[in-house]
Amino acid sequence: MPVLEQFQTPALFHISTWYVAENRSFWVDVLYRKLSASGKSHTEIIGTIEELKALPAFSDIITRIGENAMTVYSDNCRQFTVDELRDFSAHPLVHIGNHTHTHAALALQAAARIKDELQTSQQLLEEWLGYQPLFIAYPHGSMNRKVMEIAAQQGLRLGLTIEPMKNYLPIDADDMLFVHRFNFSDPWADVTTACRQIIGKRHDRAIIRQLLSRFR
Ligand SMILES: [Zn+2]
């Protein structure tokens, strides 16, 4: 917050509500920690994460990881409490978005689960903060046309992908649930290199159409 305040920069934070409601650690972090400790390589762990993401229900993931493994044991491995989230969201520079209930890879899920993930999160955030968010960041960047349609039905108006391209304003109404986003953590080592890479990126309608057709 001191950095946002210094530069008067608004920021959007996306919340997966299950972890807040249940006070649990994020399943990917738990799994990574557990498998690293047992000597698995990064590639092997990523393989297991990909496999679990495709399971049809969140309860399947919990069963595989073990419910106790997701217990919070320190401040470093927990999410907000509801009270903390409420205080945080009241700051004028802070905006809150949907990140599904359980951090689901939506494109891999059936329509009923997609709806439930988005709706449950919208309802809890409304209960906690007094409003339903207009924004979604698709967990794991997993999205397609079906996901966009269901998101729109849940009142979401802006969707953030992980397609690393620029956005030029105004964004077409059709592309509002397909907004590009750069990830600073990977594969670039530092912010200067990342900014150089971003400046060099192209963005045009043909690329968007090509990407969207891939998701159909
Ligand atoms: Zn996420």
Brief descriptors of the model:
10 helices, mainly alpha, binds zinc ion, 4 strands, two-stranded parallel sheet, TIM Barrel, 7% strand
Distance between the termini: 39 Å
Instruction: Name the strands of the widest sheet in spatial order.
Output: 1-2
The portion of residues forming beta strands comes to 5-15%
Give the overall shape, derived from the CA principal axes: globular
CATH superfamily membership = Glycoside hydrolase/deacetylase
Largest sheet: 2 strands, parallel
Query: What's the pLDDT, averaged over the residues?
Result: 89
Number of domains: 1
Bound molecules: zinc ion
Q: Within the CATH hierarchy, at the fold level, what is the topology? A: TIM Barrel
**SSE class:** mainly alpha
Care to count the β-strands? 4
User: What low-confidence regions span 5 or more consecutive residues with pLDDT below 50?
Assistant: none
Percent helix: 40-55%
H-E order:
HEHHHHHEHEHEHH
Oligomer: single chain
CATH class label: Alpha Beta
Describe this structure in words.
The protein has ten helices and four strands; from the N terminus they run αβαααααβαβαβαα. By secondary structure, the chain is mostly helical. It has one domain: Alpha-Beta Barrel (TIM Barrel). The chain has a two-stranded parallel sheet with strand order 1-2. A two-stranded parallel sheet has the order 3-4. Helix 3 runs antiparallel to helix 4 and helix 7 runs parallel beside helix 8. The radius of gyration is 18 Å and the shape is globular. The N and C termini lie far apart (about 40 Å). It binds zinc ion.
